[in-house]
Design goal:
By secondary structure, this protein is mainly β. The chain is about 15% helix and about 35% strand. It folds into three domains: about 5-185 and about 235-350, Alpha/Beta hydrolase fold, catalytic domain (Rossmann fold), CATH 3.40.50; about 360-545, Jelly Rolls; about 570-605 and about 605-685. A hairpin with a 3-residue loop joins strand 14 and strand 15 (about 370-375).
Amino acid sequence: MVHRMPCRIVVLIASALLLLVACSAGSPQKRTVELQTAWIPMPDGVRLAADLYLPANRQRDERFPVLLEYLPYRKTESRGSRHSVYAYFVDRGYVVARVDIRGTGNSEGTLIPYEYSDIELDDGEVVIDWLSKLDYANGSVGMFGISWGGFNSIQMAMRNPPALKAIVPLMATDDLFHDDVHFMDGIMHVDSWEVSQEVENMVPGAPGYEFYDRYFNERFDRTPSMQIYKEQQRDGPWWDRASLKSDYSSIKIPVYAIGGWYDGYRDSVPRMLERMDVPVKGLIGPWGHTWPSSPYPEPGMEWRHEAVRFYDRWLKGIENGIMDEPAFAVYVRDWHPPGPIDHAPGHWRWEDGWPLQRAADRTLYFGAGGHLAGEPADAGQAALKYRPSDGVDAGGSVMWWGDFMPDQAAVDASSFSFTSAPLDRDLEILGFPRALLRASASAALAHWYVRLSDVSPDGQVTQITGAGLNGAHRDSSREPKPLTPGEIYDLAVELHFTSWIFRKGHRVRVSVSNAQWPMFWPTPYQMETALHFGAEHGSRVVLPAVPAAERPAPAFKPIETYPPLEGYGLSESETVSGYAEFSEVKRDESGNARVEMKNRVVTTYPWGKVRNVENITHRVNDNDPADASVTGSYSVIVEKPGETLVWLGVVDWRSDDKDFHFKYTKSVSRGERQILEKVWQKKIARDHQ
């Protein structure tokens, strides 16, 4: 049971007036934002650190709903990147609370063991109750956040604390096992974020970064969460604890879910629209893992305005008509060339909800010679030799499905590839394409990766979406079982949610391979796979075709901008590549293939500079697929007047045919002198991975 503490015992340790004057044409009331720092007490005596963003010119009798963003991503250092989001809400009659999770940033206590543990969520219930009882609060709390903050908004709503009235999760998921960075599509993935977060979490709070008495036990000497996650190689109760997919009825409050076509968590938006019984709104636009008000790529939209309307309805009781509008706003994507783009062609459209009642499946069948057609082909098959380093040409990122990918022609050449004739009319799709494969493998474990692309008249190949299937999970990701070599299986691969218009004269391409390295960990056996086609039940793809229809479009407000927060400089990359991008593949005579990621970012703060330095190498041996590794380091370097502090994490993750071998080294240095170091090592059995 959670024991709630009355808000009167809050200890305000500081109060600062930040002149965050909003340059906001047309905002209801231009306010100066007052920042108060506060301690929120937990039942066990630990205090969580909070930044409270308040209207400085508030009246004594004014009461406000409170919006909570609850993260481990260091509230103090994040003031520069977040203040425009928070100031927008404050201008419109809200208080915003940014709270560091236990053991992270400026909060006290022992570091949480991993994301979304019961410890984090138990504390969250106390935080929500505490915020609702502040003297200037009206008793209603909303949650929002992008990524982690979106995840735990969903998870806190599953617990239904009384004061939590509505949530707005952005770029978040309802399915941790299949969608998050640890096991995407049920397949092992080693992400640079996993390496970096271990280091970020052991850095003490800014601006002092002081080593307090319990620092070693509470922050440094903690089992790396990467090790804990990699032991959970199949779906089940461990993942269900914080996955809405296990019980959509658990949420009893309204939800406004926002996603992006170039983000890996977009699948949750239509699933929540379809499967929840509470008031739900959904929005998907043409962005990656970022706020829609500071988008990449363009066009963005003023999501904060829509969030305010939603919160006004459910936290202030204002009948403003937002729930009378269609439930789903979607940006319909048009063709663009492969690779990064600054602007995504397309248009906005309202839909009444999900699924679309007017949608009609269109089936295209695989055939000999790489043909893709509307009629079943003659019986036949195609064979492909497995090369574990294949797939590196498919993309410049090891993040997830949805990122910008280069021209797919090179990787298509080493895959099963099936291409339609030029289309005689436009074809729009919106939904989850499905690849239905009749497939076999000569080994006990194989993975299948399916990519859907648009081939333009000039031959450019733009990837639209894709997905992977762990062959051992073909019937169940909870009870995996090996393949029988040579046996033909019917495999269903649901591709990730997408929107696209194939224009007249363009061609549809479906490509299938058994490696997507370094995005996914290679299977350990040399092998050959086959795809079988012919007759109605041969290998095929089912596209969620959407017939043309006159539909209204949402009219979003222009994006409002705010001046930078003085003293908090923007992060600047010191390298050409960005987060999770890797270099050209390097191969040697022994069969090894390597790609490297190098990234250096420097951020300026009032107290000094912080450098984040990342160097990660992915390696696999084409002659021995079991021999693969991810090695490298991530460091946080704090440069203050007269002192330099360095927190370093070094990862060594390797595999053979039976086991994964994990080694992680943490260290802390002051200048050139190392003051702490510890090594964690663990052999983890491969569980159908």
